[in-house]
Design goal:
The chain has 130 residues and is an all-beta fold. It has no helices and 11 strands.
Length: 130
């Protein structure tokens, strides 16, 4: 089991920045590729960004490219999402997710599909005012 706890959400004006954190506990963090997803009211949960377990490979949704940066610190068991130039349409609950892979698996794989993740945090609200 892996427990994930997100933090860093809040209310910010358009054009501002937030840094989300997701702290993991319970297992060897470096065995878990991670992802950030978001869900706006009345919409499906969508991928925002993903990162391989080594941190060497990242993926961004088109909406996040050039504005958001995903990173991880395996020594601190934490994954981050730096969000800059925020827009009103970024308003959503943001979730981090973890997928278990064995230590022998290729370390630079990332996963962009929600169904591939095994563990989820409770989410943190991000509200961007225009």
């Amino acid at each position: 089991q892996v427990q994930l706890v997100e933090s860093g959400g809040g209310l910010v004006q358009a054009g501002g920045s937030l840094r989300l954190s997701c702290a993991a506990s319970g297992r060897t963090f470096s065995n878990y590729p991670m992802g950030w997803f978001r869900q706006a009211p009345g919409k499906e949960r969508d991928i925002v960004a993903a990162i391989s377990r080594s941190g060497g490979t990242t993926y961004y949704a088109d909406s996040a490219k050039g504005r958001f940066t995903i990173s991880r610190d395996n020594a601190r068991n934490t994954v981050y999402l730096q969000m800059n130039s925020l827009k009103a349409e970024d308003t959503a609950v943001y979730y981090c997710a973890a997928k278990y892979v064995p230590s022998s698996a290729y370390s630079n794989n990332y996963y962009s599909q929600m169904r591939m993740y095994d563990y989820w945090g409770q989410g943190t609200q991000v509200t961007v005012s225009s």
